[in-house]
């Protein structure tokens, strides 16, 4: 098969990306496109891009909504340490140990998946003038040929650039005409013109309110931001998509609320981000971890992930700050004598943008100005849910409620 690899930041995915994929398939130069969102953990890029899990899940949603076959999204870069260079991605993807199971998982027959494939790197012509400055261009071109989209009104001389690269690296360049619209992620973000994006992308952005909430990072230190981007990738194998995006939303909202209430934004960012890190571990593991943190204080299965999360945050994410670990331990229950950080993480967990379990309008309105007032509404709503389900409220929550005057 002829397989085109299409790497990019996809921050956000736009019609230009969709049309590029559609036209490459329509041109008959490739049979399959594998879309690869860059994970790139480099800190500088981190300040510019939203964290990789948002970009990956946004891309998956729009691709599965747009293409019924022959276009797949890969999470291959989540397995890389540090900066993900194209050469590492390509080397991995073209290997039999990766590509055969990947294609079979995406519905390609074992026989077709095991064929000897021809690989392309799918790109716009704008990369040609600088391609030789990429990291290890020669090695990249030993795995893939370039498949270049020629856009209408494109002023890059593809043939001249192609001849230049050919003389440098002896590589092949295939081209195809791109008929569809062109867009640029940077312009869309700068103008806030999200209504020009595919409907599924608009919905994703609105659900997580991501281009607004990410501004909370402006209040955090460089070191905390770096950890946040790092944790977002490190959490990927441990949590389902929905839960991972929830935890990142909680991290960002916690940082924002910490700024609103004069609390430490860095601690709030990290505590919020890791609060549910243990939630999808097997229950026996959660039990052991929880016991190590607070003995038999919590025995209800639904509460174990909180202290287990503190254990995991300490042992796997290197967090040793007691305030952060306590905020994780008590994020489900609250506690008597709760700190502002405890309250922020508790509340952010219940009202982050993707939450829809009840009408959260008033809690969200109050949260930036009156933390306790918002928290009271939140705790009452949780207590009410417990009552309806016939579940007992934990004694530490009763202490929490009493402190709030409930
Ligand atoms: Fe939780
Ligand atoms: Fe949560």
How are the elements arranged and paired?
Blueprint: E1 2-8, H1 15-26, E2 32-37, H2 43-48, H3 52-66, E3 71-73, H4 86-93, H5 96-105, H6 110-113, E4 118-124, H7 137-143, E5 145-151, H8 158-169, E6 173-178, H9 185-191, H10 199-208, H11 210-213, H12 222-234, H13 241-260, H14 265-274, H15 283-294, H16 301-315, H17 322-329, H18 340-351, H19 361-366, H20 371-389, H21 395-403
Parallel strand pairs: 1-2, 1-4, 2-3, 4-5, 5-6
Helix pairs in contact: 3-10, 4-7, 12-14, 13-14, 13-18, 14-17, 14-18, 15-16, 16-17, 17-18, 18-20
Bound molecules: fe (ii) ion (2 copies).
Characterise the protein shown here:
The chain is built from 21 helices and 6 strands. The chain has 406 residues and is an alpha/beta fold. The chain folds into 2 domains: 2-201, Rossmann fold (3-Layer(aba) Sandwich); 213-403, Hypothetical protein af1432 (Orthogonal Bundle). Strands 3-2-1-4-5-6 form a 6-stranded parallel β-sheet, sandwiched between helices. The radius of gyration is 24 Å and the shape is elongated. The protein starts with a strand and ends with a helix. The site of one fe (ii) ion has 6 residues, from loops. One fe (ii) ion binds next to helix 13.
What is the CATH-assigned architecture of the largest domain? 3-Layer(aba) Sandwich
CATH level-4 homologous superfamily of the largest domain: HUPs
Q: What is the top-level CATH class of the largest domain?
A: Alpha Beta
The total domain count is 2
Strand fraction equals: 5-15%
User: Ions, cofactors, ligands: which are bound?
Assistant: fe (ii) ion
């Amino acid at each position: 098969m002829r397989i085109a690899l299409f790497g990019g930041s996809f921050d956000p995915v736009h019609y230009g990306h969709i049309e590029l994929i559609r036209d490459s398939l329509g041109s008959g130069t490739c049979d399959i496109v594998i879309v690869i969102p860059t994970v790139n953990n480099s800190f500088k890029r981190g300040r510019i891009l939203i964290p990789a899990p948002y970009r990956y899940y946004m891309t998956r949603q729009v691709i599965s909504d747009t293409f019924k076959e022959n276009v797949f999204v890969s999470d291959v870069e989540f397995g890389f340490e540090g900066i993900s260079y194209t050469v590492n991605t390509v080397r991995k993807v073209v290997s039999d140990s990766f590509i055969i199971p990947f294609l079979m998982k995406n519905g390609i027959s074992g026989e077709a998946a095991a064929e000897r494939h021809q690989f392309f790197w799918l790109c716009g012509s704008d990369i040609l003038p600088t391609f030789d400055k990429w990291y290890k261009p020669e090695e990249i071109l030993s795995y893939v040929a370039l498949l270049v989209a020629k856009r209408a009104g494109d002023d890059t001389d593809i043939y001249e650039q192609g001849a230049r690269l050919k003389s440098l690296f002896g590589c092949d360049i295939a081209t195809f005409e791109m008929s569809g619209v062109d867009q640029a992620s940077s312009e869309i973000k700068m103008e806030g013109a999200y209504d020009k994006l595919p409907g599924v992308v608009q919905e994703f952005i609105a659900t997580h309110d991501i281009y607004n909430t990410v501004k909370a990072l402006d209040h955090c230190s460089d070191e905390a931001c770096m950890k946040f981007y790092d944790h977002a990738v490190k959490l990927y194998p441990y949590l389902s998509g929905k839960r991972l995006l929830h935890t990142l939303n909680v991290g960002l909202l916690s940082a924002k609320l910490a700024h609103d209430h004069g609390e430490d934004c860095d601690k709030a960012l990290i505590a919020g981000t890791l609060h549910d890190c243990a939630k999808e571990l097997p229950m026996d593991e959660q039990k052991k971890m929880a016991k190590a943190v607070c003995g038999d204080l919590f025995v209800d299965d639904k509460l174990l992930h909180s202290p287990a999360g503190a254990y995991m945050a300490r042992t796997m994410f290197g967090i040793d700050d007691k305030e952060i670990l306590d905020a994780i331990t008590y994020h489900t229950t609250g506690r008597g004598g709760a700190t502002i950080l405890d309250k922020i993480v508790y509340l952010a967990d219940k009202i982050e943008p993707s939450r829809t379990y009840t009408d959260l309008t008033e809690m969200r309105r109050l949260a930036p100005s009156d933390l306790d007032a918002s928290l009271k509404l939140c705790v009452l709503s949780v207590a009410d849910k417990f009552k309806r389900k016939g579940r007992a409220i934990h004694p530490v929550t009763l202490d929490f409620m009493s402190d709030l005057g409930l």
